[in-house]
Amino acid sequence: MLQxxxxxxxxxxxxxxxxxxxxxxxxxxxxxxxxxLYCHSVVFVLLVYTLAPLPxxxxxxxxxxxxxxxxxxxxxVRLSPxxxxxxxKNTLSTIVLSTxxxxxxxxxxxxxxxxxxxxxxxxxxxxTAAQLxxxxxxxxxxxxxxxRLLHTEWCxxxxxxxxxxxxxxxxxxxxxxxxxxxxxxxxASFAGLAIVPCHMVTFWLWFIVRPxxxxxxxxxxxxxxxxxxxxxxxxxxxxxxxxHYVGKRSKSxxxxxxxxxxxxxxxxxGYRYHKAARMAKLQEMAQNNVVGKG
Length: 294
Fold this sequence. Notes:
By secondary structure, the chain is mainly α.
């Protein structure tokens, strides 16, 4: 809720006219309690996890296998509509039960101790991008170690095995997990925000960007035109798909966003060996085809 009663008061405080985005923010947030604005993050998470996986899900269900096979990381696995629906329903209930309480727990901390702005001016695109990068780096580092902990025998058998039910993941499987895992990893997403406080708009964007990234790495598709291929050190779907493919035995690819934690701590070797072996096999098949045609 803004402290200005009118747009004229807001512009007087800014010392300039509001931009169109600031005017839109003023109209939306002027009379809305800050806690309600804060809780919008849960709505964004639910919308992203519901809508973002749909295009690739429909592609897998409706398109011929010959069309999707070149881009599907595990082309032999074809999930049924019932499997997609079961995953979505379970995921939705887990998100509601595990993430809905987080605003009630975290809001007093962020509002009083950390500070989260709702006023004007809005952050610049550069400030927003820099803060989102910090949040990705912090969450990726914490997520790496939490993920390694989840692969200890006790944690895997009691908690993490739920997430690995889908050895060939798809978008809806990103948050498909035990409620305790969703809660802990969801809490880790707030760590960067506590280190670098931000505006409410950036807070919202973070809870759109992070689910989108999780859906991307669980998509099961390696699309050549994906813009994420231009992000340095980004793991992507192929990197994380190998982790699901190996399952409980996996000692590789624990990071959720970038690859450098796995490289620094040596948990990338299994994936590198697998990728090298796969490339050698493809080269051998190509050579055999050339010999056969000759």
